Structure formats: C-alpha cells, structure tokens
UniProtKB/TrEMBL annotation:
InterPro entries with a match to the protein in the record: AraC-bd, Homeodomain-like_sf, HTH-like, HTH_AraC, RmlC-like_jellyroll
Recorded coiled-coil stretches: none
GO molecular function annotations of the record: DNA-binding transcription factor activity; sequence-specific DNA binding
Residue ranges of domain HTH araC/xylS-type in the record: 186-284
Organism: Alteribacillus bidgolensis
Protein name: AraC-like ligand binding domain-containing protein
Keyword entries, A-Z: DNA-binding, Transcription, Transcription regulation
Length: 289
C-alpha cells in the first residue's frame, strides 16, 4: 500500500462527510510508517490513531500507556497528549469534529458520549471490523477511487470508531430490536402469501422462521394489529378473489385450493370478509368487465 498516496487522496476527497444523523468535518488524515515522537499538545477536536505495527508509548493525564500492534487510541478534545518512544511504530490517524449544523441531536449526542468516555485505548483490535474498515479505506484511497466511495467509507469509519469506544447506544439497541422484529414479520407475511395453498398453521410458519409460536403471534399483534389467524384468513380470501375474477375454476375447486374445510366454510369466511358470497362476487366482477 502506498500510504502517502492514500493520505494525499483522502486530504483532497474525504474532508466533508455528510450523513443522515451525523456529519463530520475532517481536519487531517495521516499515516506514518516510522513514527517516533511528537511534543505534548492538545486539540479542540477528536483525534484517533491506529497502530499497524511496532511499539511506543501514549501519554495523557500524567500517565503512559503502551502502544503495540492492533491498538486504537482516542485523544479527546482539550486533552494534553503525546506519542513517544516509537520503535518501528506504524500509525494511521484522523482528526475530525462533528458538523453540528447538519447533524441531528441524536448524532451529536453520540460524540458527546465519546468526549467523556474513560476508555481511551483498545488493545488487540486488529481483527475488528473497525481496523478492517480503516485498511479498506486506505487501500481504496491509494487506488484513487471516487470521492463518493471514499466519503462513504470515511463516514462509516468514524461511526465505527465511536461504537468501538462507547458501545451501541441504548436507543440504537432498541431500534435494532425493532428492525429485527420488522424483518421477521416481513418474512412471515411473504412466506404466507407465497404458500396460501398449504395448510399454514402458526406452528408451520414459526418453524420456518425459527421462532416460537408465542413470539410469532406477538409479532402479528404488535406490528400488524391483527391476529395470525385473521391475517391468514384475509390473505386466503384475497387470493380466492383473484381466482374468482380471473379463472373459471369452480367455487369448490377454489375452496379446496386455499385449504378451506368445505364450500360452506369458504362461503361463510368470504362473506364475512367482503359482505357478499363468492358466487355474487364472481358475477359482479364479470358484469364490471
């Protein structure tokens, strides 16, 4: 990897990083294959470093911390710090601040958390997604990929760094739980619609999704405000309506196709859902044609 070229391209193409909830302004990207010492100093913004190889020391709050391969360090705004005693110390670094005018309160809050985190170093992180993402960004920058791609990767890296040091925000965990539930209910609906000619008990669908019957039942109630049985019934009637309109299948054949126990059962359910019988529905649909 040509780190000098990577940094040069990042400095030109990856400075203002917009995002849906949080946007960033980059002050600098950097990389040094043999970093030795720098003077005691502070910033008004965040600076992150990642150790690719070698050893050294990081000084902050009158304490020295060991630096070695796979270490991330977070220098927070206003903190006096320095890196010294470097031996073959290969580093990546980035200095940035949140663009508050184009960020939401939630996005700003994430990085306020970071400003006060007691965790300033993370060791043995070379296999972490964050380390891999930084390496991917540098590789792409070295090959002069588009500004759009580099900005997207750079933005993702800064979010990943915040999560690495602060963990997932509680509200984000709740959101992820909601997203997971929504994904499950979407899969359940699709499976039902694709298999209406099958018996489709609650147990069948729960088994397909690898969840309990109770959990699946709760998902229908909470997300769709309808019971599983009522949803299945509506979908069978909807599919039966299409067959009544578009085919010459007998009412009995349609009843059998969608697993109704009898023509009488089909007629009763169809009438409850549409306020007319299957025969009346077929006649009306053909008159309208």
């Amino acid at each position: 990897m040509n780190v000098a070229a990577s940094v040069r391209h990042l400095q030109k193409r990856c400075i203002n990083l917009p995002g849906e909830n949080v946007s960033f302004h980059i002050y600098f990207w950097g990389a040094q294959p043999n970093h030795q010492d720098n003077p005691l100093h502070k910033h008004s913004f965040f600076e992150f470093c990642y150790v690719n190889s070698g050893t050294g020391l990081y000084y902050e709050d009158e304490q020295n911390y060991e630096l070695k391969k796979g270490t991330f360090l977070c220098s927070r705004p206003g903190k006096l710090h320095r890196i010294h005693n470097g031996e073959n110390l290969s580093l990546f670094w980035v200095g940035f601040e949140v663009n508050q005018s184009s960020s939401t309160k939630e996005g700003i809050h994430l990085f306020k958390q970071l400003a006060y985190t007691p965790k300033i170093l993370i060791y043995h992180a070379e296999a972490s997604p964050t380390a891999q993402l930084w390496n991917v960004l540098m590789e792409h920058a070295g090959r002069s990929y588009s500004s759009e791609l580099l900005s997207s990767l750079g933005h993702s890296l800064l979010i990943s760094l915040q999560t690495l040091f602060c963990g997932l925000d509680e509200s984000e965990e709740i959101h992820n739980d909601d997203s997971s539930s929504q994904f499950l209910i979407n899969r359940a609906q699709l499976f039902i619609k694709d298999n209406l000619t099958m018996p489709l008990s609650l147990e069948d669908v729960a088994q397909y999704l690898h969840v309990s019957k109770r959990h699946l039942s709760r998902l229908f109630s909470s997300h769709l405000k309808i019971t599983y049985t009522a949803f299945l019934r509506k979908e069978r009637v909807r599919a039966a309506s299409v067959k009544l309109r578009e085919t010459n299948l007998s009412i009995k054949d349609i009843s059998d196709l969608y697993s109704f126990s009898s023509v009488h059962h089909f007629t009763r359910v169809f009438s409850e859902e549409t306020n007319i019988t299957p025969g009346q529905y077929r006649k009306l649909s053909r008159i309208r044609e």
